[in-house]
Amino acid sequence: MKLEGQVALVTGASRGIGRAIAEALAAEGAAVAVNYRSGKEKAEEVVAAIEGAGGRAVAVPGDVAEYDQAVAMVEQTVSELGGLHVLINNAGIADDALIYSMEPDAWLAIMRVNFGGVFNCTKAALSVFMLERHGTIVNISSVMGERGWTGESNYSASKGAVNAFTRCSAVEFARFGIRVNAVLPGFSPTDMVAGLMDKDGGKGILKQIPMKAFASVEEVASAAVFLAGPDSSAMTGSLVTVDGGVSTQVGIGKPL
Amino acid sequence: MADVDSSVKEAVVEALALDDDEVTPESTLMDDLGAESIDLLDILFRIEKSTGVKIEASDLGDYMQGGIPDDEFSDDDQVISAKGAEQLHKVMPQTNPSDLEGKLNADEVMTLFTVQNLVDMVKTRGDGAGG
Question: Least CA distance to B54: which residue of chain A?
Fold first, then answer.
């Protein structure tokens, strides 16, 4: 196991990609703090699943959009699990709308969670990592941060900010032994993108993906575990796409 | 506590990727050794790890100003007052108050800070923390 003796904090870990990452980190031997904002019961299910598989985990409440709560999450993780070595900034929300009809403050609400959460948790964990001169941070971003999609301007902008912040923090923290990378999923079947699947069960999207398959939450998680662990020891500032190739092509890569 | 003199020197040498003989107690961190803000941060975290004495980057300015209010430490143009120069001489004994009073800008105080001054500060803080 590659993360034996390490402690990881995963934000937004009660479901979706966050849950898959929490369980995958635990399977590599890490003790995991399972952060949730409102899904207490679901977070406790994740903790139970990890413990059932022989791992260690605790549920940690907190809204990543609030810096004070991010600090409390890090403190609880360190006090209950004995340290902090891996931070997975996964918590995120979407609130799709056309710019024309978007409420003027809708961009800020998304930005506060998706980018603010990354900033707050990174800053909160930083002094622990700097003192240890060791730590890995994996930001769960999106290919939408590098490309455009109708109705996702607020989400896309927030993920673009996460990608830029990933690069800057990688540069600033490198000398302290802290690596920062991002995973950019394309379309992964979670509650957050359920709306996109409504139309035709996602067929219209599937046709546009070169691999003709959605990236499963487990596939996203395995990239996150790789970036969190020793196998990626020379990687920092990388934006790793896990998207079946969808963001690598021009248009849909062929004539319609 | 680990030997402060050697801990501070080691922190400076490693954070700035210098050779051992390039760092003397008299070297000023910023002017002589070229330290920038991120280097100072690195140095302070290395010192905390080796000695257990925690110094925030923001503590450096407060330490040098010694609790003297801004409007007494320097004049309206941010130039160091006689009282300010006296205080700076306490924490940086190598300075001559008459060279600073009415001449040094408050923003430039840090440029006079030497490796030995940092050693003294760590020792002071370590005693205060019971370390």
Answer: A131
Question: A142: Cβ–Cβ under 8 A, 6 or more apart, which residues?
Answer: A155, A156, A159, A184, A185, A186
pLDDT single digits (tens) A188-199: 888 878 777 777
Whether residue A172 lies within 8 A of chain B, CB to CB, comes out as yes
pTM value is 0.93
For residues A102 and A94, what is the distance between their CA atoms, to the nearest angstrom?
13
Tokens of A75: 């403190």
Catalytic site includes residue A155: yes
User: From the first residue on, what is the mean pLDDT of each consecutive set of 10 residues in chain B (131 residues)?
Assistant: 89 97 97 96 96 94 94 95 96 96 94 97 80 41
Q: Is B17 exposed, middle or buried (0-12, 13-18, 19+ CB in 10 A)?
A: exposed
Is B49–A131 a contact, with Cβ atoms under 8 angstroms apart?
yes
- Residue range B14-37, pLDDT digits in tens: 999 999 999 999 999 999 999 999
Chains A, B: CB contacts under 8 A, how many?
A: 13
Exposed/middle/buried for residue B53 (C-beta within 10 Å: 0-12, 13-18, 19+): buried
Backbone angles phi, psi at B130, to 5 degrees: 80, 20
